[in-house]
Every structure is written in structure tokens, then in C-alpha cells.
Design brief:
By secondary structure, the protein is an all-alpha fold. The protein has a single domain, classed as Hydantoin permease. The protein is 73% helix and 1% strand. It has a two-stranded antiparallel ribbon. The longest helix has 35 residues. The protein is globular. Bound molecules: 4-fluoro-L-phenylalanine (PFF). 4-fluoro-L-phenylalanine (PFF) binds next to α1, α2, α5, α10 and α14. It holds the Pfam family SNF. Its main location: membrane. Belongs to the sodium:neurotransmitter symporter (SNF) (TC 2.A.22) family.
């Protein structure tokens, strides 16, 4: 059984820990406050998904229409599913797999639903393998910014800097390793601890720097063009694939469909409103993504770049701004340090579910479990890193038309974010809305106000699953 110390100093014990069996569920620890939970959950949600991924996929799918679908997915699918995950976690009080088992036993339902927990843990681990490659880019850019590499550089020079990084397998693997080591170091010590405290300072700092960058973009003379790209929807540009991508990204950015919110919910004290918490986390997450978009797209237009530049978008646009502003080296380094932190508080939540399970089930010591899982994820991640250079032409599923243009990195991203997460999310919605007796979660979600629970139940039974299923159906068609 995982021990209190394994969940870190930001938590306090609610009960002594017990046996390793899932037959003897134990509430392990609790967040010290509602704020601690919000910070940890926001730390997980706000990450590369907001600042790196959201702008570039928005660029690839043509802007406004994509943003609109994404916002709708957050509101009617993301928030209800986040509430379901947190409520399941608090009700079960254990790691995602054991939480599911405990609730299934209590409600007399088929054990097969525990698959939700298993698939979530697997998806989180797979995402970690490539997430840490991009986290490595951010670490590399701290060094570049600090060394003055952006100052006065032209957009070609900045683009060359980025392609130089991608072309060097050795450098990519090194930074990928550094980022993974950071992740393992924290998970080995327990999740929150110093990081929880650090996040409470660094997240607001990230917010402030983003605002400064938006201010800079405002002065670029192309703000309205950027604004129009982000917010005026042109549905002819998005396509069916774009709707799936928006849905998948809503899950990715809110850290849903991976058991992470179940795990974090299991530490949430009673009496804290799950509805308010889920809404706060989602609003903060969305705000950061939109600010990143507002900082980036005006620069794209001001410098004659393409919105559809792909995964390098952020790394090719923001350094231009840093290169031209006073104290740009300092600002640039600070920005990338904060980006690393945002990625770090997310990557620990990607590693945590597997480590928690290894500890509970296999009795592996936390430090060893974290190191072993980290090394395996790093090794698998090599394939993603090499897909930017030596293996750029490898198409693992090239025999299927749908995947003909997807290299290893793109494929892993697609399979996890666009398929696994929405599918696990769909299963969670069906389970919470249709399979589970309402009484199980009512106590967690009603907070003495029946209408909140009724609204949630309507969304989770009808809106979320139907929307996810419809998007899939359309895509298959
Ligand atoms: N939500 C994180 C981001 O937007 O960068 C990524 C992520 C973290 C996804 C944790 C899933 C997860 F479980």
C-alpha cells in the first residue's frame, strides 16, 4: 500500500496505511487544503498542451472554428468528465485502478469496468514518452535564451536555431534525459512537496510573462489579424479531423481520460466543492491557452510566418519577440524556465499513476519504481526523438491510408490524444452516467444542491457520451 510520505508533504494523513490488497481499501492522504488540490490539478492541466500544443494545432486546423469547437468540448464534455473523475477518486480514495475496483465491488458491477483505470495508466505512460521529448526542447531553450542566442536574430536565424536542435539526435536525447530526470526526481520524493509550493509561485509568474508577451504582440501591429485568426470561425477550414483533434485536445489539456484526476481526487478532503474546483481548473487552463494564442499569432503575422508551422510554432515565434525586446535574453530565459515548470508539474502527473500502482501492487519502493518507469519511458521516447531526424521517414502504420503521413511522434500523439483519451473518457461518462447507481456519486457532487447534481447527470448521461460517440462515428465514416 502506498504510504503517506509517498504522496508528499503537501498532504496529510487521513488514516494509517494498510495492506497491499485492493480488498482493504484505505484512504491514504489528503491535500492540505482546497487550494493545494487546485494547484496540483492546475499544475497537471496547464503544461505544454496549453503553450506548445494548443497554438500549433489551432494553426494546423485553421484557427477560429477549431477554437470554438475546443471551447465547447471543454464546457460540455471536459468539465462534466473532470467532475466524474474527481468524484470517483474521492469516493474510492485510492489509485485509479483500485478506486475503480472498490467502487465496482461496492455497487455490485462488472469488474471489467476497471479497464478504465488500466487504459488510463497506459495512456499516461505513453504520453510521457513523447511529452518529455518536448519538455527537453524547452530545457534546451532556457540555455539558448540565457546565452543570448535570440538577440537580434532574424526569423530565418530563429528557424535555423530550431531546426538545428531537431537535427541533432544527441542533443535531443540529452535534453529528453534531463527532463525525464527532473520528473523522476520529484515523483521519487512524493508528488507535491517542494513542487506544490514552487507551483504556487511559478504558475502566477508564467501568467504574468504571458501577459507581457500579449502586450508585446499588441504592439506588433498585427494583433487584430491574430485575433481574427483565433476567434473568427470559418468552418470550411476545420474538417472532421479538426473536430476530433479539438475533442482530443480538450481531454489532453485537462489531463482527462488518464486516471490522473481520479488519483488527485482521491486526496481531496470532503467538504470541498468538486464542481467549483473543476470549473476553476478548467477556466485557468483555458485562459492560459488563449493567452498563448494571443501572444503567438500576431507574431506569426508580423514576421510573415505560417500559422500551420506545426510543433515548432512556439519555438519559432516567441524567440523573435525576445530577440527584439529590451532585456530579451532575460525575459526569454524566464519564459522558458516557466514553460519547463509548467511541463514538469504535468509530467509528474503522467508518471504518478504507474508508480502508485507499482507501489501498491508489486510492493516496489517508490524511488525504484519511479526510476525504473522513467528509464523505460526515456528509452521508448528515443523513437519519438529520432522521428525528428534519423527516422524522419519512418511511417510505422504507413500501410493504412489514415496514418500514411504520420511519423513515430505524430502517431503516438494521435493514438493517445485523439483515440485513447476520448475513448477512456467516453467509457468514464457511460460508467458514471449509466452503469453506476446514482447514489454512489450523489453525495460527492450534490453539495446539498440537488440541481447541480441533476445538471451534471444530464450532461454526463446525454451530452458528453453522445458528443464523443458522434465525433468518432463521423471520423470513421
Ligand atoms: N494537461 C497537460 C498539458 O496540457 O500539457 C498534459 C497532460 C498531463 C496530459 C497529465 C495528461 C495528464 F495526465
Amino acid at each position: 500500500m502506498t504510504d503517506i510520505d509517498s504522496t508528499a508533504d503537501g498532504l496529510r494523513a487521513a488514516a494509517p496505511s494498510g495492506s497491499a490488497s485492493d480488498a482493504a481499501p484505505v484512504r491514504h492522504a489528503q491535500w492540505s487544503s482546497r487550494l493545494a488540490f487546485i494547484l496540483a490539478a492546475t499544475g497537471s492541466a496547464v503544461g505544454l498542451g496549453n503553450i506548445w500544443k494548443f497554438p500549433y494545432i489551432t494553426g494546423e486546423y485553421g484557427g477560429g472554428a477549431f477554437v470554438l469547437v475546443y471551447l465547447a468540448c471543454i464546457a460540455v464534455i471536459g468539465i462534466p468528465i473532470m467532475m466524474a473523475e474527481v468524484a470517483l477518486g474521492r469516493r474510492g480514495g485510492q489509485s485509479p485502478i483500485n478506486t475503480m475496483r472498490r467502487i465496482l465491488r461496492e455497487d455490485g458491477r462488472s469488474r471489467h469496468w476497471a479497464l478504465i483505470g488500466w487504459l488510463g495508466v497506459a495512456a499516461a505512460f505513453l504520453i510521457l514518452t513523447f511529452y518529455s521529448v518536448i519538455g527537453g526542447w524547452a530545457v534546451a531553450y532556457v540555455v539558448r535564451a540565457g546565452g543570448g542566442a535570440f538577440s537580434g536574430a532574424s526569423s530565418d536565424g530563429i528557424a535555423a536555431l530550431f531546426s538545428g536542435l531537431l537535427a541533432s539526435p544527441g542533443e535531443l536525447l540529452f535534453w529528453h534525459g534531463v527532463f525525464m530526470a527532473l520528473t523522476v526526481a520529484v515523483v521519487a520524493r512524493g508528488v507535491s512537496g517542494g513542487l506544490e509550493r514552487a507551483t504556487s509561485i511559478l504558475m502566477p509568474a508564467l501568467f504574468v510573462i504571458l501577459l507581457v508577451l500579449v502586450g508585446y504582440a499588441l504592439a506588433s501591429g498585427h494583433f487584430s489579424q491574430g485575433l481574427r485568426f483565433l476567434f473568427s470561425p470559418d468552418f470550411s477550414k476545420i474538417g472532421v479531423g479538426g473536430v476530433l483533434a479539438a475533442l482530443g485536445h480538450a481531454f489532453f489539456t485537462l489531463s482527462l481520460g488518464m486516471g490522473v484526476m481520479i488519483a488527485y481526487g482521491s486526496y481531496l478532503p470532503r467538504g470541498v466543492s468538486i464542481t467549483r474546483t473543476a470549473v476553476s481548473v478548467s477556466v485557468m487552463d483555458t485562459t492560459v491557452a488563449l493567452l498563448a494564442g494571443l501572444a503567438i499569432f500576431p507574431l506569426v503575422y508580423a514576421n510573415g510566418l505560417e500559422p500551420s508551422a506545426g510543433p515548432g510554432l512556439v519555438f519559432k515565434t516567441l524567440p523573435l519577440a525576445f530577440g527584439q525586446m529590451p532585456l530579451g535574453g532575460l525575459f526569454g530565459a524566464a519564459f522558458f524556465v516557466l514553460l519547463v515548470f509548467a511541463a514538469w508539474t504535468s509530467s509528474i502527473s503522467l508518471l504518478e499513476p504507474l508508480v502508485e500502482w507499482l507501489e501498491e501492487h508489486r510492493g516496489v519502493r517508490r524511488g525504484i519504481a519511479a526510476a525504473a518507469a522513467g528509464i523505460v519511458a526515456w528509452v521508448i521516447g528515443i523513437a519519438s526523438a529520432l522521428s525528428f531526424n534519423l527516422w524522419a521517414d519512418v511511417r510505422p502504420l504507413g500501410m493504412f491510408a489514415a496514418f500514411a503521413d504520420k511519423g513515430i511522434f505524430d502517431l503516438l500523439d494521435y493514438l493517445t490524444a485523439n483515440l485513447m483519451l476520448p475513448l477512456v473518457g467516453l467509457a468514464t461518462a457511460v460508467f458514471a452516467g449509466w452503469v453506476l447507481s446514482p447514489r454512489i456519486l450523489e453525495g460527492e457532487l450534490s453539495e446539498g444542491r440537488g440541481h447541480v447534481f441533476r445538471l451534471w447527470r444530464f450532461l454526463i448521461r446525454w451530452v458528453s457520451p453522445v458528443a464523443v460517440a458522434a465525433v468518432f462515428w463521423h471520423n470513421l465514416g
